[in-house]
Design a protein that fits this description.
Number of strands: 4
Strand content: 35-45%
Order of helices and strands: HEEEE
Radius of gyration: 18 Å
Shape: globular
Largest sheet: 4 strands, antiparallel
Distance between the termini: 65 Å
Length: about 80
């Protein structure tokens, strides 16, 4: 069943199984939360567990995950 849902989701994106690598997945409240790599880019794809419809898709962007706040270096205590 899970593979059929993923196949359905792939078709919605115009992808084939060769374009995708599943890293992990879990079922949560009727939605499969799937961590995938599509053509070298990491995503989290949420699929409705009944219909296979893509509910949400988020791209993991490593550039935004550097935990560095660019404004911190300007903070000074001038007292």
């Amino acid at each position: 069943m899970m593979k059929e849902l993923i196949r359905s989701g792939l078709e919605q994106l115009g992808l084939t199984a060769g374009d995708l690598k599943i890293k992990e997945y879990e079922l949560d409240d009727g939605v499969y939360e799937i961590e995938v790599v599509i053509n070298g880019v990491a995503y989290e794809v949420d699929l409705n567990a009944v219909t296979g419809e893509i509910v949400d898709m988020d791209r993991y962007d490593d550039e935004d995950d550097d935990d560095h706040d660019d404004d911190d270096h300007n903070d000074r205590d001038d007292d």
